[in-house]
């Protein structure tokens, strides 16, 4: 009888794990579709400066390239988004010379945002700063917001960009 009870618990655990995996994959699918909807040209502001960003679907629809152009003398930057199993990955090619990689499991419960959290980084110089997190909030089909969080000397700061689709 005890053996049967353990067997049922094991079966129940497996079913819960499978259901969770399917839910994560569905969440990542919806989030990926939201990211793909950004394809095109956008204009926005951060700290009272106008910037441009474009999104291009690349690699047969398996990746999305974000190209951000800030006002001079700030250099442009690129971020590549792609699926990874039941999640999403964003690799940011930063003007600080490093490449942080951030992961998201899918969209928020209300489906309006995706929060990418720091996973790892390449080319980080000792004492150097880097992008840590990114939250993308979808306001409507023609407006979205990005909140980029960076880390410098153990302190965090955020920059918020509000984007409008160019018509």
Characterize the structure shown:
The chain is α+β, with helices and mostly antiparallel strands. 21% of the residues lie in helices and 52% in strands. It contains 1 helix and 10 strands; from the N terminus they run αββββββββββ. A 10-stranded antiparallel beta barrel has the order 1-2-3-4-5-6-7-8-9-10. Strand 9 and strand 10 form a beta hairpin. The longest helix is centred in the first third of the chain and has 35 residues. It starts with a helix and ends with a strand. About 11% of the residues have low confidence.
Describe how the helices and strands are arranged:
Blueprint: H1 2-36, E1 40-46, E2 49-58, E3 63-69, E4 77-84, E5 87-93, E6 99-104, E7 113-122, E8 130-140, E9 143-152, E10 155-165
Antiparallel strand pairs: 1-2, 1-10, 2-3, 3-4, 4-5, 5-6, 6-7, 7-8, 8-9, 9-10
Task: Give a concise summary.
By secondary structure, the chain is of the alpha+beta class. The protein has one helix at residues 2-36, and strands at 40-46, 49-58, 63-69, 77-84, 87-93, 99-104, 113-122, 130-140, 143-152, 155-165.
Task: Count every helix, treating DSSP H or I runs of 4 or more residues as helices.
Answer: 1
- In angstroms, what separates the terminal alpha carbons? 68 Å
Order of helices and strands: HEEEEEEEEEE
Question: How helix-rich are the residues, as a percent range?
Answer: 10-25%
Contiguous uncertain segments of 5+ residues: 9-26
Placed side by side, the strands forming the largest sheet appear as 1-2-3-4-5-6-7-8-9-10
Report the C-alpha radius of gyration, rounded.
Answer: 19 Å
**In CATH terms, what is the architecture?**
Beta Barrel
In this structure, how is the largest beta sheet organized?
10 strands, antiparallel, barrel
Class in CATH? Mainly Beta
Overall form: globular
* CATH topology label: Lipocalin
Number of strands: 10
Mean pLDDT: 86
Strand content: over 45%
């Amino acid at each position: 009888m005890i053996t049967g009870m353990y067997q049922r618990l094991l079966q129940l655990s497996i079913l819960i794990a499978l259901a969770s995996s399917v839910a994560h994959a569905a969440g990542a699918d919806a989030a990926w579709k939201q990211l793909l909807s950004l394809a095109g040209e956008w204009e926005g502001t951060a700290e009272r400066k106008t910037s441009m960003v474009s999104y291009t679907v690349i690699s047969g629809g398996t990746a999305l390239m974000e190209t951000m152009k800030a006002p001079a003398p700030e250099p442009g930057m690129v971020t590549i988004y792609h699926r990874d199993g039941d999640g999403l990955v964003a690799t940011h090619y930063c003007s600080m010379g490093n490449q942080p990689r951030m992961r998201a499991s899918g969209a928020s419960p209300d489906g309006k945002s995706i929060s990418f959290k720091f996973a790892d980084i390449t080319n980080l110089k000792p004492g150097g700063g880097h992008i840590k997190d990114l939250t993308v909030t979808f306001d409507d089909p023609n407006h979205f917001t990005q909140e980029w969080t960076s880390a410098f000397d153990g302190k965090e700061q955020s920059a918020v960009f509000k984007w409008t689709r160019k018509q």
